[in-house]
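User: I've been trying to design a sequence by hand for this structure and keep getting stuck. Would you show me what you'd pick, starting by listing the structure so we're on the same page?

Assistant: Good idea, let's start from the same input. This is the structure you sent:
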């Protein structure tokens, strides 16, 4: 059974915006640190942003000021609002949930920034 369901990826022009979402199982979301990672071809998977069960957030330096991570506890969903997108943001984006008992990953969603 899929436990992290991602959506929102696609093709966008430079300077445009895109919002990714990740819906988690309630049992996971209630205790998890939620985050987004990305992996470009030939590169290591890297943290983009993460948020605790509170509102404490962390961002990669490359996306600070452009991306915003938030969570909707009522919907067990996290959102990654991506603004001012650049071609170098092109990657597969993966939702991640870290719980005391496991580390979960979504299937990945492709984000392509191109003219």
């Amino acid at each position: 059974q899929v436990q992290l369901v991602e959506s929102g990826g696609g093709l966008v022009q430079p300077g445009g915006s895109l919002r990714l979402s990740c819906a988690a199982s309630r049992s996971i979301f209630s205790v998890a640190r939620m985050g987004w990672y990305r992996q470009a071809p030939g590169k290591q998977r890297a943290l983009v942003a993460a948020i605790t069960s509170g509102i404490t957030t962390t961002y990669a330096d490359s996306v600070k000021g452009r991306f915003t991570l938030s969570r909707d506890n009522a919907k067990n969903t996290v959102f990654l609002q991506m603004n001012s997108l650049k071609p170098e943001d092109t990657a597969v984006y993966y939702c991640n949930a870290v719980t005391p008992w496991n580390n979960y990953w979504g299937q990945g969603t492709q984000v392509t920034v191109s003219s």
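That's my pick for every position. To get oriented when you compare it with your attempt: The chain has one helix and eleven strands. Helices lie at 26-29.
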